[in-house]
Amino acid sequence: MVRNDKIGMFEEARPRLLGLAYRILSSRADAEDAVQDTFLKWQAADVSAIESPAAWLTTACTRRCLDLLKSAHRKRVDYVGAWLPEPIHTASDDNAEEKLALTSSLTTAFLLMLERLTPKERAAYLLHEIFGQPYDEIAETLDMQEAATRKLVSRAKYNIGVVQTRHTTPRERQEELLAAFHGAIHGGDIVGLSALLSADVRLTADGGGKAATVLGILSGKETVVAFIAERLTEYWSHYRWETAELNGGRGIVLRSEDGDVAATVSFGYDTDGRVTDIFIVRNPDKLTHLDDATVH
Known about the structure:
Strand content: 5-15%
Protein name: RNA polymerase sigma factor SigJ
Structural class: alpha+beta
Pfam family, one: Sigma70_r2
Organism: Sinorhizobium chiapasense
Distance between the termini: 29 Å
Subunit structure: Interacts transiently with the RNA polymerase catalytic core formed by RpoA, RpoB, RpoC and RpoZ (2 alpha, 1 beta, 1 beta' and 1 omega subunit) to form the RNA polymerase holoenzyme that can initiate transcription.
């Protein structure tokens, strides 16, 4: 096999590997590191002896992600304030059921649910439920018995409550929320926004100790609305607003006068379309890759 064929095989698999790695690690930067490490290992491998290149690459990438996940969890012990996944741009196609299924597994709310799982539970669940890999292949990837792998997936599905976190909120409802949020910040119309929030709505902001933001999670409609009215209307009035597809849903990108991303805002919804979560990412380290290509 010539070198170009080997590279071509990897490049064909790259989007899938990047999507898998991002879902496991919740970080675009770490996901790209994992994929690059997989590429280096692939370059050193004897491809003629590999029966299924796609399965080999998935296994290598997954195992590297599990190693990186252990390191990431250690770093989060000392993380300043609330931690949120790194936001990413995602493509929009309301008519593609497969794409909707994939993007629903990219929402911030869903990625936070994955944090409840052990690393192997997370990998097994994603490989089977999102990427359609059979149990026997997952067992080989995780170096486990197939029966144990089935239990991992079953336990993961129970722990994350898939129905609650992977439903799709109608696009019209999302657009209504964006308009109401903009009206609250720039027009002082808190009533319109308040009507769309659940009673126990939460506001979580991630500054990572590198950008000013609220450190704790704000809970309850009254508290959240007061913070938006009294603080965000002042802090955000000078930013340029852009609506964007963030982690599979409609969100907001705030840019400074020089065009740099200052913050992203995304939302979580219940099955009735009420807003349960407002996620604000201000940590500049997590905004570096926002304008990069989509992770599928």
